[in-house]
Amino acid sequence: MTRLRTAWAAALLALLMACGAGASDAPRACTMIGSSAGIAVSVEPPLAREANAVWTSVCWDGSCVETLSALVPGQAAVDQGCDGAGPDSSCSAVMTPDGTMQGFVGVAALPLKEVEVTTVVQRRDGTELRRDVARVTPEPTYPNGKDCEPGGNQVRLTLP
């Protein structure tokens, strides 16, 4: 009789575990990955040909943060296709230069409200190539998805 009770208890436990394994409201695991707060700058052609660095001044509530950041050649992913359509198929892409220059300016305390950003794109010799002023509102990033805590606040500026 004890074996029968044990078998029924084990079967009931297995059934409960199986039912719970597929529950869609199970808590989602959030990793410790983060994202930096700041401003991503993209300098487009033809301006990008001479661009080497970007100086920024980000201002809000009467204070400003000034930073100089190097620019690096931008790249875009080019789809190389897939070797099939099944779940074990593999797909690939290659990165190729896209003619832009890219940079990221870290601003640790970047708020979630409108800020004024002055950008000065510089040539290799440090002379000013272009100056822009924009009013933008940073947004939070979610490196682990919207169900997890946000990362750093960011904004993206494109200089044509």
TrEMBL record:
Residues 1-23 form the signal peptide. Residues 137-160 are annotated as: Disordered. Keywords: Signal. It comes from the Bacteria. This is DUF2690 domain-containing protein.
